[in-house]
Amino acid sequence: FFFKQKTAYEMQRGLVGSEMCIRDSNTYVGMPIPKKVVEVYSSKSTDGRKIRSSSFIDKLSARLNPIDRICFTGGECAGITTALAVCAQKLNELGVPTFVVPDAEGILVRGGLNLAHAQRDQDSRVRYQISLTKIRMALEDVFTDIANDNYPDERTLILCERGLRDGAGEFTGQLWQALLDETGWTNSQLRDNRYDMVLHLVTAADGAEDFFYSQKGEGTLISETAEEDAIRKDKRTQFAWVGHPCFNVIDNSVGSFNNKVDRCLDRCLLYKSDAAD
Q: Model's pTM, two decimal places?
C-alpha cells in the first residue's frame, strides 16, 4: 500500500511525490478542485432546493486556488485524532492555511448522547446515522465557508475527522441502502464528490497490539475477540471508501506511531504540492 519516501520533516515544500494513491490514477492531479466543491454546494436537497446560493457558488468558482478537503478516517485506536492535530499544526507552521473539522459523534457524546440508546434497534440506527451525517455535512460546509472567507487567494486545506461514508462501515448493505433511500443521497455524492483525499489509519489491533491494549486502559474488561472485532470493523470501514480516486491506507508497518503520523503528513504535503503544480 505504500511507497518509500522521505518523512515530512525531511521534505521541502516544493518537492513533488511521484505516487501517492493506492489506485493508479492521476485524475486528481491538476483537477479544477473548486468544481468539486461547487458540485456539492450545487446539489439539491431532498425537497429540491439548492443547498447554497448561486452567489456563493460563483465565489468558489472564482477562486484562484482551491479548498482541498482531506478526510481522516480509520479503525479503533488508530490514532486518528492525534495524527490529525499534529498534521494541522505542522501544515500551519509551514504556511499552509489548515482547518480541522472535529468529529461530529464526539460532539454529540460530549453533549450527552447515549450511543447505545441511539442505536437500540435497526430503525434507530438508520435515523441516528442520518442525523450524524447531516451534522458532519453542516460542519464541513461551515469550515468551507470560513476558509473561503479568510483565505480567498490561498490554497487551503480542511482536515475532517471522520467522513460521510464511515456510516457504511457500520451497516449491512441493506441498512445502508435504506439510509440512501430515505435521504436521496448517493454513494458517489458522499464519497467521491465530498473529499479530495481520504486517509484511512488502520486500527492498532492490526500490527500494533501493545498500543491497542494500552489505549483500552488498565483494569478495563476486554473481550477475547477484541482484536478480531476491531480488525473486522476496520476492514468494513476501508471497504466503504474503496472507489475514491485518492484513497490511502496508512497501516502499522512503519515502526512507530510517530512514523505513522509522519506518513499522514507526507500525504497532505504531497497532495498539496502535486495539486499546486
A: 0.76
